[in-house]
Design a protein that fits this description.
Elements: E1 10-13, E2 15-19, H1 31-36, E3 46-52, E4 57-62, E5 67-71, E6 77-82, E7 87-93, E8 98-103, E9 107-112, E10 117-122, E11 124-125, E12 128-129, E13 133-138, E14 144-148, E15 159-164, E16 170-177, E17 180-185, E18 191-196, E19 201-206, E20 217-221, E21 228-233, E22 239-243, E23 248-252, E24 258-263, E25 270-276, E26 282-287, E27 292-297
Parallel strand pairs: 1-24
Antiparallel strand pairs: 2-27, 3-4, 4-5, 5-6, 7-8, 8-9, 9-10, 11-12, 13-14, 14-15, 15-16, 17-18, 18-19, 19-20, 21-22, 22-23, 23-24, 25-26, 26-27
């Protein structure tokens, strides 16, 4: 990573690792594809990757069919759970040793991997149903930050970002987001980066010492039909942003400078990413519509919340 501030960003390509097996593909129309894909049939739409070191497993969601899969180090797929929902983002709760799910249909759910039991953590705010949660991240003290995207966009910039405390108290942080999507905390947890898909930008949301939001700004801006989706961070503080319709992961230094582009060899729908491997130095990228997991070796470990 020797680029100077005047150098052009490095461009590299990820490689295909594994794809959803044929026996799990369902080439039909679902409630999700009717509402969000204009009725276009989808055999799957993968999202929300997380690697759980305790289990040495990568987990992904399949939004249209309410499924969560695990993938082992030999690229063997197992259907962990199928339920009446539209699971998107996943996060490992280091305190409870459970997977937390941002589910568009059901709200924020908690999954016990061993028993495969689901528990609802949040479905309403001030009595009203959530718009449709998209992604989430969990702080070192067990606070869940999640985006409530629904069908918001530039025509309706009312997407929200919430903070959910372990006692189930729900706090609204952002209420004017045009399609809030992926999010990541900075390393000292004093600010939140939020992908605003329909604004084609990543917003920077700093916190005051009491936890309230200070002055929100744009960290990075993009182009294209879609926009930024999932995000990750490495131990150097670089912010990695998956763009949903450019087939590209944009890598930014902590000051926003564009450092690198990682491209997909398959398609344009690079929607999310996570760290894995024994040293957390493998970047896994979801290429959603092809149902493929890409990977690339990284020069430093990724940054994940530690208990």
């Amino acid at each position: 990573m020797s680029n100077t501030i005047h150098d052009r960003p490095t461009v590299t390509q990820a490689q295909s690792w594994t794809s959803l097996p044929a026996e799990f593909r369902r080439p039909c129309v679902s409630e999700h594809s009717l509402n969000q894909k204009r009725g276009r049939p989808l055999d799957s739409f993968l999202e929300g990757p997380i690697y759980v070191a305790d289990l040495d497993l990568l987990f992904v969601t399949d939004i249209p069919y309410g499924r969560i899969f695990s993938i082992d180090s030999k690229a063997q797929w197992t259907l962990l759970l199928e339920y009446d929902g539209e699971p998107n983002g996943l996060a490992w709760n280091h305190a409870t040793k459970t997977i937390v799910i941002a589910d568009y249909k059901q709200g924020i759910l908690d999954l016990n991997v061993a028993s495969r039991e689901l528990q609802n953590l949040a479905a309403r705010y001030h009595g009203e149903r959530l718009k449709g949660p998209n992604d989430l991240v969990i702080s070192t003290n067990g606070v869940i930050y999640f985006t409530d995207q629904g069908m918001t966009g530039l025509q309706d910039p009312t997407g929200r970002v919430f903070r959910l405390y372990p006692d189930r108290r729900l706090e609204l942080l952002v209420s004017n987001g045009p399609s809030p999507n992926g999010l990541v905390l900075n390393r000292d947890e004093t600010a939140l980066f939020v992908a605003m898909t329909r604004d084609n930008a990543v917003w920077y949301v700093p916190f005051l010492p009491d936890g309230s939001v200070q002055r929100i700004g744009r960290f990075a801006s993009y182009y294209g039909i879609g926009g930024p989706d999932g995000m990750a961070q490495d131990t150097e503080g670089n912010i990695l942003v998956a763009h949903s319709t450019l087939g590209t992961i944009f890598v930014h230094r902590s000051n926003g400078e564009l450092l690198m582009k990682i491209t997909s060899p398959l398609g344009i729908n690079t929607t999310n990413l996570t760290w894995g491997g024994a040293s957390l130095d493998v970047l896994y990228i979801v290429e959603s519509e092809s149902g493929t997991i890409l990977k690339i070796d990284w020069h430093c470990p990724g940054w994940l919340v530690k208990s």
